[in-house]
User: Fold this.
Amino acid sequence: MFLFLMKLIFATHNPGKIEEAKKLLADLYVEVLSAEEAGVREDVIEDGETFEENALKKARFVSEKTGEWAVADDSGICIDALDGRPGVQSARWAGEGASGEAIIAHTLHELREVPPEKRGASFISALALVAPNGDHWIFNGAARGSLASSPRGSALPQLPYDVIFIPEGYLETFAEMSREEKNKISHRGRAFEALKNFLKHTFAPTQQ
Assistant:
């Protein structure tokens, strides 16, 4: 019988990310809680210049507040034709607090004169794990693809770009895929796979 159970606080208030994280870590003996479920309601200012800096800042904040292991993801989309924008500003480049629909409308407007063959983009994810003693590890994931000319499918809450991102080798957008199919190939899925391998090798369950 496995006795090991690890509590992991995901430093986010994004319900879409929480749902994905729970699915991605479902085969481990890990209890995933959101920052709010752990009693942390403050938002961290994401002013880092890289995905790694922002992820680490969020995870460290939640770990210090709770005294628990914490993980945070910072992710975004880097569009070739826009010189890598919006990057770390992916959630904010349509204006602070903009809706998912507004973000997509703004993105498609910026790409209005870009032909289909030049609409390449990369989804990037950096995942930071912080221990109660302050030690930390970074795990990265990326997914290459292109951007559709109009929204397709239904995205999880606060994951707006899924309706226009078409991963390489597929015809569907992330939002048109099943959760399981997306998680196998997504940037966040790949970063979490690296995290899972780390947890499996670092914290072997006690077996009796």
Remarks:
- Residues 6-202 form a domain with the Maf protein fold (CATH 3.90.950.10).
- The longest strand covers residues 136-147.
